[in-house]
Amino acid sequence: MEKLISSRCNLQYVPESYILPPESRPGKEAPLCNMVPVIDLGGELCHDNSTLTQQIMKASQEFGFFQLVNHGIPNKLLDDATQVAKEFFELPIEDKARLYSEDPKQGCRLYTSIDYANEDVHYWRDSLKHPCHPLQEHIQNWPNKPTRYQDVMGSYSVKVRKLSLQLLDMICKGLGLESGYFNNELSSVQLMAINHYPPCPDPSLTLGLPKHGDVFLITLLFQGEMNGLQVWKDGQWFAVEPLPNALVVNIGHMLQIISNGKLMSADHRVVTSKGLARTTVGCFILPSHNCHIEPAKALVVGDCVPSLYKSFEFKDFLSTYVADTHARVPPLERYKLQ
User: Fold this and answer.
1) Cα–Cα distance for residue pair 106/118, rounded to 1 Å
2) What is the DSSP secondary-structure string of 250-278?
3) Distances from the Cα of 67 to the Cαs of 155, 200, 292, 316, in angstroms?
4) pLDDT, tens digit, for every residue of 173-187?
5) pLDDT one-digit tens code per residue, 136-179
6) In this structure, which long-range contacts are made by residues 324-331, counting pairs with CB atoms below 8 Å and at least 24 apart in sequence?
7) What single-letter DSSP state applies at residue 195?
8) CA neighbor of 212 nearest in space, from 61, 62, 55, 64
9) How far apart are CA 276 and CA 293, in angstroms?
10) Which of 63, 90, 199, 276 has its CA at 20 to 30 Å from residue 136's CA atom?
């Protein structure tokens, strides 16, 4: 528990183990990005599914990121989820201690940085992560403090899963795959990660999370009102400006592979803030560990449109992803077919 960066009250300097090499530091402040598409699920186009599908596909092909507004998740539930997430990290150390673990195989766990025991430099983040589907199989293992945590996050996870599958259905249609292509073991797992980035004495020296692409199928993030998320586009970092009650959606590596490169997983990172803590709630849809992953057969047409990626089991990709991330090697490279 003493390793949690949020447990080190009133730090006046960045500890040496958190200082990144000069070439990896965030550098100057990134400009706000006005290129991230904003898709309105409840606007005039809400009854035109084909137009919405085209918008989602265009954003997923060109950017790998988009913000979703009028998505149907009540504003109060978004506020409650954010508030209960903050309340968890404000709990006394003894209330959080039983959840702390450096074992990534533990279902519900509180940990710090990315892989604290094995990494050379740490990142300015504490995280609570747990599975949440099927809800009844996991909710009893979630924190029981704050007292409303299970109720609020249970409701939130159900709403986000429904929305995620709705988006995947539209992506399925946009790719020309048979209906329900993703409604199986490809989307059988759902994880929630509450990331907490405490105030940092010198944000120029460290990062909350380094440059990476998500290993999952699709990610839905509620980042609240504070800047911190940045996306890599055209050789430059851009800040993703939070929109009121919007969800940030990004395409994961698995969806890039299954789409045979038609969709793009976007690299992103998280910077820290000197004055305020930032807490975000992310939900991830991913395959089962033993799920077989390959480009969808309907998207491979012999020599005309060859398969761009090897086939593999998802659990094997998870192993190589960790190793490649440590080695700063793009994790998709070893799976590409020449």
Assistant:
1) 17
2) EE-HHHHHHTTTSS-PPPEEE---SS--E
3) 21, 27, 30, 31
4) 999 999 999 999 999
5) 999 999 999 999 999 999 999 999 999 999 999 999 999 999 99
6) 325/114, 325/212, 326/115, 326/118, 326/119, 331/213, 331/215, 331/253
7) E
8) 64
9) 41
10) 90
